[in-house]
Structures are given as structure tokens and as C-alpha cells.
């Protein structure tokens, strides 16, 4: 059994000496002789609603900075070290916009890492575009971020409309196990009323329409997400074949807890944010055979120069932070890696030239391939679908990445 403690572990503690890493105090200045210090700015949700994933994001950023600084790099023949200046946006878009202005106007930051969530990312986009500051983000997945013609936004992750659509494909392929033809399948959708979850919903509705499936329930949930009983009563009455829920960590925990408590019997249940909510660890019985959308998994065969393989990254992350790496941390580390790769190719700190180098990225990494289209989306990496089996996340789709076979229908609990 892996040892997990929570995400709020300083990278300065619990570090194995054999890793050979020298960890800087990332939120403070440091002296390294003649080395150039390149400051990346980041507003993160270290408190408030998104604090859990804000911590995952920070841990991913910090681990990548440490690794990059340990490896060393040069721009114009001069060594440089990365440094991150953090501010706590308190999970508030209004505060986030003020702090990004502060990073740019007062602190003189020329390069930004993204905040956590689509809503907070969306709030600061006008500022980075106005000041022409390149930003690489790892945790804003809503499609609308990439429909406004933003020139300085780049995202390493897949967009949220793609998160749960593989479930429909998978269940359609296995419809016979439910005693149905694919077009006879029905689905229920319960999503938080925020940009990310509504984009998940839009992707599901579009995929269902394409396949001619009937959506029998489409509920929008309030942000508190501490009670889904009204929605689940409807699910019991309507008896859909598939129940989709997207409401960040709290929604995932509430869903599996109340589905079990209210004895809601649905053949297929699919959620977002399973691993960051640590469902397999915290709710192993209730989450058994639930399908989970994930951007990344340690069993994938991705490799790159900075961390090695996906498994290498996961092992290092766990050694440093004492909990298993969620995909939010992995994609955050990948975002920093893209900056380092762009600096190496641009050989300048001119923001416009660095922006062009980022746009030309074609990078193999532990997280997966990274290549941006004209809107700033990473078009080289696919989502993966896992199923929780006996407290572990087993990749079941796509086929080339699968390490196990999907269990459909979900056995009665």
C-alpha cells in the first residue's frame, strides 16, 4: 500500500538524499552567483474552494523547477535558474485579476504559469493579452478559453469537452452486456454550474446526439455540492444506463457517498476529479468500478528527457511529497517543462520571441506529447479513462494504453 498524506507537503521535507536534488526556497529569492534568475509568476488557489488542487498544482510546478535547476540550462551562454513568485488568489477570480496585474505591473514578471480552474484562467486572460505576457497553463480546460483568439495562452491539457465522452464509446461497444443495442442506451448528467463542468456536459450532449442516445436527465448542481439526493432520487426513478457527474473533488466525493447510501443502482457511473479527490483511497468501497476521466496516468508509456517515464515522474513525486501524483500535478510539471524547452530554443528572454518558441513546441514528455494548435490547445495528447478496481485506477481506454478490461455493468453494491 502506498503511503499518502495530503498535498500540503513542502518539497524541502521528506526528500531522499539519493535523488540528488537541490531544492530552492521557491517563494523567496535566492543567490546563485552569476546565474540569471528567471521569474515565473503564478496566482494559485492556496486557500478557498480550490485549495486542494491549488496545492497539487504548486507541487507539480515546484518539482519541475527543482529538476530543471538541478539539470542546468543556459541562455546566450549564461546559466539561468527558474524561480516562481506565488500569490494566493483565494479561489476568487476578482482577487486573481488583481494579483496578476501586480505580478506584471509591480513585480515585472514577463512569463506566467496558469492558476487552477477554467474560471480563474478565464478571468485573467484579458490581462495577459493586453500586456502580451506568455502564459502556459495546466488546469484550465474549458473550450471557451480557446475560442477568443488569445495569442499568449497555451495549455498542455486536453479540453474538458473530451473528458467523459470516451465512456459513451466504451459503453456503446459493450451495450450487449446491458441487454441493449447501442442506440437504446440512456444517460443522466449532473454537472456543477461552472465553466469546466458545463463544458463536460456540452461534450456529452454532443456525443449522445451524434449516436442518437437519449439523455433522460440533465441537472445543474449548485457549487456547494454537499447534497445530491434530489438528483439521485430522479436517477432512481428514471433508471438510466449511464450516470455522469462532474463537480470537481467535492462533487466526486458526494456522488459516490450518496449513491451508496441511497442505494442508487446504475450500470455505469462516470466522474471527473476522481484521483485528486483520492476516491480510491478515501472511498474504496463506494467507488468500486466507477469510471474516471484522467489527463494522465503513471502506467502510460510517455517518456521525455526531464523526468524520464510517466512512472519515473510518479515515483519521484511520491518520494518528495508522500502521496501519489494526481494528474493535476503531472500536467503542472509539464507546463514548467514547456517554458524551459522554449527558453532553450529561443535563447533569449524577449517575451515575444519566447511566445513564438512556445507556439512552435513539439515536445515528448513524461506527461505525453505536447504540440499546440493556433488557438493554444495541446492537440497531441489524448485523455485516458480509468476504472477504480480494488482501490487502484486501472486504465481501460484507449485500447493502446489499457492495462485492464472494463467491468460493465457495475456489480450491485
UniProtKB/TrEMBL annotation:
Pfam family, one: Peripla_BP_6
SUPFAM superfamilies: Periplasmic binding protein-like I
Protein's GO biological process: amino acid transport
Entry keywords, A to Z: Amino-acid transport, Signal, Transport
Keyword Nucleotide-binding: no
Leucine-binding protein domain segment(s): 38-391
Signal sequence residues: 1-33
Transmembrane stretches, start-end: none
InterPro entries assigned: BCAA_transport, Leu-bd, Peripla_BP_I
Keyword Metal-binding: no
Similarity comment: family membership: Belongs to the leucine-binding protein family.
Protein name: Amino acid ABC transporter substrate-binding protein
Organism for this UniProt entry: Methyloceanibacter superfactus
Phylogenetic placement of the source organism: Bacteria, Pseudomonadati, Pseudomonadota, Alphaproteobacteria, Hyphomicrobiales
Amino acid at each position: 500500500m502506498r503511503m499518502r498524506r495530503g498535498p500540503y507537503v513542502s518539497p524541502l521535507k521528506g526528500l531522499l538524499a539519493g535523488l540528488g536534488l537541490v531544492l530552492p526556497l521557491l517563494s523567496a529569492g535566492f543567490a546563485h552567483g552569476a546565474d540569471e534568475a528567471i521569474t515565473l509568476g503564478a496566482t494559485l488557489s492556496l486557500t478557498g474552494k480550490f485549495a486542494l488542487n491549488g496545492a497539487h498544482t504548486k507541487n507539480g510546478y515546484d518539482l519541475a523547477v527543482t529538476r530543471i535547476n538541478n539539470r542546468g540550462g543556459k541562455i546566450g551562454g549564461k546559466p539561468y535558474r527558474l524561480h516562481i513568485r506565488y500569490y494566493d488568489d483565494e479561489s476568487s477570480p476578482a482577487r486573481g485579476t488583481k494579483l496578476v496585474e501586480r505580478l506584471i505591473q509591480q513585480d515585472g514578471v514577463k512569463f506566467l504559469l496558469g492558476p487552477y480552474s477554467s474560471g480563474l484562467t478565464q478571468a485573467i486572460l484579458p490581462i495577459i493579452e493586453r500586456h502580451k505576457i506568455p502564459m502556459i497553463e495546466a488546469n484550465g480546460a474549458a473550450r471557451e478559453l480557446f475560442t477568443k483568439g488569445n495569442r499568449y495562452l497555451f495549455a498542455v491539457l486536453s479540453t474538458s469537452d473530451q473528458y467523459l465522452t470516451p465512456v459513451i464509446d466504451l459503453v456503446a461497444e459493450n451495450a450487449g452486456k446491458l441487454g441493449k443495442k447501442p442506440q437504446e442506451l440512456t444517460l443522466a448528467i449532473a454537472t456543477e454550474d461552472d465553466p469546466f463542468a458545463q463544458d463536460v456536459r456540452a461534450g456529452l450532449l454532443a456525443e449522445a446526439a451524434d449516436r442518437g442516445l437519449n439523455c433522460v436527465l440533465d441537472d445543474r448542481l449548485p457549487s456547494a455540492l454537499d447534497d445530491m439526493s434530489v438528483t439521485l432520487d430522479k436517477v432512481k426513478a428514471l433508471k438510466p444506463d449511464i450516470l455522469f457527474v462532474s463537480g470537481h473533488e467535492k462533487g466526486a466525493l458526494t456522488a459516490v457517498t450518496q449513491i451508496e447510501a441511497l442505494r442508487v443502482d446504475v450500470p455505469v457511473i462516470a466522474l471527473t476529479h476522481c484521483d485528486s479527490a483520492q476516491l480510491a483511497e478515501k472511498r474504496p468501497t463506494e467507488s468500486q468500478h466507477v469510471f474516471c476521466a484522467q489527463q494522465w496516468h503513471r502506467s502510460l508509456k510517455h517518456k521525455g528527457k526531464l523526468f524520464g517515464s510517466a512512472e519515473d515522474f510518479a515515483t519521484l513525486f511520491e518520494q518528495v511529497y508522500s502521496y501519489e501524483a494526481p494528474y493535476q500535478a503531472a500536467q503542472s510539471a509539464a507546463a514548467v517543462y514547456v517554458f524551459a524547452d522554449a527558453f532553450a530554443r529561443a535563447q533569449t528572454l524577449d517575451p515575444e520571441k519566447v511566445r513564438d518558441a512556445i507556439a512552435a513546441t513539439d515536445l515528448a514528455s513524461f506527461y505525453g506529447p505536447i504540440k499546440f494548435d493556433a488557438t493554444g490547445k495541446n492537440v497531441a495528447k489524448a485523455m485516458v479513462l480509468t476504472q477504480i478496481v480494488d482501490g487502484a485506477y486501472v486504465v481501460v481506454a484507449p485500447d493502446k494504453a489499457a492495462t485492464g478490461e472494463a467491468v460493465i455493468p457495475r456489480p450491485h453494491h
